[in-house]
Amino acid sequence: MAEGYRQAEGRFGAGLLGGDAILRHLDILAAEGPGEPLGLVLGSGFEAAPDLMRTIAGRHRLLGAGPDCVAALKDPFALAALCRAQAVPHPAVTRDPVPDRSAWLLKRAGGSGGTHIRAAPGGPAPPGAYFQARAPGRAVSLAVLADGAAIRVVGVTEQWSAPSPLRPFRYAGALERAPHEPPVLGAELLATMAAGVACLAAATGLRGLASADCLVDGRDWWLTEINPRPGATLDVLDRRRTPLLAQHIAASLGRLPDPEPAPMDAAASEICYAASGYAPMPPISWPDFVRDRPRPGTTVARHAPLCTLFATGPDSAATRAMLRSRAAELRTLLALTEGHP
Fold first, then answer.
1. Where are the domains of the chain?
2. Rounded distance, CA 130 to CA 109, Å?
């Protein structure tokens, strides 16, 4: 669907992105366009590489959070200090050995997707990692648009995990309830959480579409992290009259769009992880509800993300049931494909 593309090099999420190659590819794409590029939207993978973001920003306008904002929000100790200053509840963090390892998690600074989260080991945190205190509650995320000073809440999603033996907190999916259902958050709690996120956004100059991941336990809540970019809930929430990418661009340029009503149904997406490895990926006639499809001939490692499933329904229960049905249908399709190379 794009007029041109280049495949990036390096290891995304580890700060090893092949910066020179990325800059060269971006310059070529910019030159191939019909006019001056409006700007560049960065997705996941750059949180651990703010220096590369600064270099890119010196050549192309960034539509979204700038490198200093990303560095402040994705540095666990800088974020913890910001939360203390703004009275936003946030789990304690440390690099020092923790006395009760069962009460702490090990995370990688700048990590995303939950695959980097482990139970805390003994001793100090390894280089590039830190300990975060466990907090109770269910996982919810506030999607917001920010213009550098204020925010507007786009929607609230519920999230769940797909644990594996080595990755117990691996992200699975998210759901936006239908408007006629009981809200995920009460009005008072939502207002309190949004006010806290707004303080952090103003303090860091956050721009564009972002998400604030939180844990909620009754009236108590904790902000665990802010993802200063379009995130995994984009598909679920991108069902308003104006595309969310257009709203992201407008907010990045300093214009917060007016709120738009949510659709009347619920929607959910879920990542399907490969139960076995594919080397190479065979041709598959994917159902329409499958997104992020791997190309035939590429390699998909076991337990790596294979594709994304999407479903809508009249309410949350029906939508989750539809996801389970589609996951079963996909497993059958993959089994048949594996049996007939």
1. 19-69, 70-252, 266-339
2. 7
* pLDDT over 90 (residue 175): yes
Q: Please state, in angstroms and rounded to a whole number, the distance separating the CA atoms of residues 269 and 289.
A: 10
Which residues, in sequence order, are CB contacts of 241 under 8 Å at separation 6+? Answer: 260
pLDDT tens figures, 6-35: 887 766 655 456 678 888 899 999 998 888
Mean pLDDT of 188-199: 98
CA gap 86, 198 in Å, rounded: 10
How high is the pLDDT of residue 341?
A: 46
What mean pLDDT comes out for the span 55-77? 94
Query: What percent of the chain has pLDDT above 70?
Result: 96
Find how far residue 130's CA is from the centre of its chain: 20
Residues sharing a CB contact under 8 Å with residue 147, sequence separation 6 or more, in sequence order: 207, 251, 252, 254, 255, 256
Q: Does residue 143 surpass a pLDDT of 90? A: yes
Strand-pairing partners, residue 132, are: 93, 105
| Protein fold of 70-252 | D-amino Acid Aminotransferase; Chain A, domain 1 (3.30.470)
Measured CA to CA, the distance from residue 336 to residue 269 in angstroms comes to 24
The pTM is what?
A: 0.91
